[in-house]
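Amino Acid Chain and Its Fold in Token Form
===========================================
Purpose: to set a sequence beside its fold so the mapping can be learned.
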Amino acid sequence: GHPQVCMRPCIYYLTGHCDTGETCEYCHLAHPERPVHLGKRHHEMLRGMTLQETAALVLPVVRAKVQALDASAPTMALTDEFAAFYGVPTSIVEPVTANRNQRMLLHTLQSMSLRTLLTTLSRMLSVLCVDAEQVIEALLQHIRGIVATVGTN
């Protein structure tokens, strides 16, 4: 699950001393120097898209990232439910990109960690759809549970 679903790095651990230790909510493992985030132009592009256009672009990326972590039937069913919530057929496995700017946006989305992608998606879509946050959080919590179970075995 690291670094796909973990929290951001603990700044205290990185400096050599985290008083919280095992109970720290932040990650004590190595992360890329600078995590990938959407830029201003990408945010503007997504804001200019309808909910279905955004979902058709982003959800295949989310599905691929989720599948890479856990391809079990319950997890994929939750991912399909997530897609259905946004009105995107689960048969869409490739993101829909019409132009160069959308392909650049898609490349950025694919470079993001799953947690960052879902958090960004939640913030953007919660403005358009009240239930978006709960659906995204349910998916993220399920994946964290799977990863935690695998990590303890």
In short: Residues 59 and 83 are 7 Å apart (CA to CA). The chain has a mean pLDDT of 78.
